[in-house]
């Protein structure tokens, strides 16, 4: 894993940064080993705790692969079942970390997103992808099943699309993925880096406080009955009225100037 901080756009203050977390095991096609998952979790926590970071970006150093998914060698080795079971908590823990961090997390899919990596992408808040990549759950082709990521797939797309992905192992294009609601934005390969920068800059310009409140509210209400969700969201809106950022945003809009977020 590589970790770097960059300003979100030219001429932005030094204390407004994006954290880039790069999967960097190209020889193994960024297979999601225990060590890599532990590093990723630690770096996510580091970015989450840095007050200068407005946006977190996950990407890959491999020229064609974001990640090939779980480490197949570990699936078929001769360790005792109890030892393998002990490591299974890493994926759900990582998904909870991704959804629990207040800051927006962007998956910059600059290569194929396969198997468990699709779960990581879907646990992010937004996905931007190169037009040439493929996405899918090929686990069934090697006698496995995408148990851990099925809950995320079902929350991102319809049941029949999810079933087809998991039961056939077919890889899909970005056009199919976008139509199914699995990615937000598809960009021609040669425009990807510039499009990613523009997106990061746009997101980083929003109130970090309100984005964090909104992300927590979405996570808390996603699976609630409507009445319970509305009660919770009403309380969150009332809480937003007590912040300095909400009236500052309205004043800035009326005065046609950039807002000065105070984070309180």
TrEMBL record:
Keywords: Lipid metabolism, Lyase. Belongs to the enoyl-CoA hydratase/isomerase family. The keyword Lipid metabolism applies. CDD domains: crotonase-like (cd06558). It catalyses: a 4-saturated-(3S)-3-hydroxyacyl-CoA = a (3E)-enoyl-CoA + H2O; a (3S)-3-hydroxyacyl-CoA = a (2E)-enoyl-CoA + H2O. It comes from the Bacteria. It comes from [Mycobacterium] nativiensis. Coiled coil: none annotated. This is Enoyl-CoA hydratase/isomerase family protein. The keyword Lyase applies.
């Amino acid at each position: 894993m590589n970790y770097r901080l960059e300003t979100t756009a030219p001429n932005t203050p030094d204390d407004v940064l994006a954290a880039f977390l790069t999967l960097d095991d190209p020889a193994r096609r960024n297979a999601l080993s225990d060590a890599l998952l532990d590093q990723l979790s630690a770096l996510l926590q580091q970015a989450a705790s840095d007050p200068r970071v407005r946006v977190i970006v996950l990407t890959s150093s491999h020229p064609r692969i974001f990640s090939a998914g779980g480490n197949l060698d570990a699936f078929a080795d001769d360790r005792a079942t109890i030892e393998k079971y002990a490591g299974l908590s890493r994926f759900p823990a990582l998904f909870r970390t991704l959804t629990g961090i207040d800051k927006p997390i962007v998956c910059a899919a600059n290569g194929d997103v396969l198997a468990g990596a699709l779960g990581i992408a879907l646990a992010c808040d937004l996905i931007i992808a190169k037009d040439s990549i493929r996405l899918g759950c090929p686990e069934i082709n090697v006698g496995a099943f995408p148990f851990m990521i099925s809950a995320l797939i079902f929350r991102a797309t319809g049941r029949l699309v999810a079933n087809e992905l998991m039961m056939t192992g077919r890889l899909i294009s970005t056009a199919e993925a976008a139509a199914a609601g699995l990615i937000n934005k598809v960009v021609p390969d040669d425009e990807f880096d510039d499009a990613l920068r523009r997106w990061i800059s746009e997101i980083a310009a929003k109130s970090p406080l309100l984005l964090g409140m909104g992300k927590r509210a979405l996570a808390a209400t996603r699976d609630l009955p409507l009445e319970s969700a509305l009660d919770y969201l009403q309380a969150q809106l009332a809480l937003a009225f007590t912040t300095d950022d909400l009236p500052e945003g309205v004043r800035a809009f009326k005065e046609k100037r950039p807002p000065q977020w105070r984070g309180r």
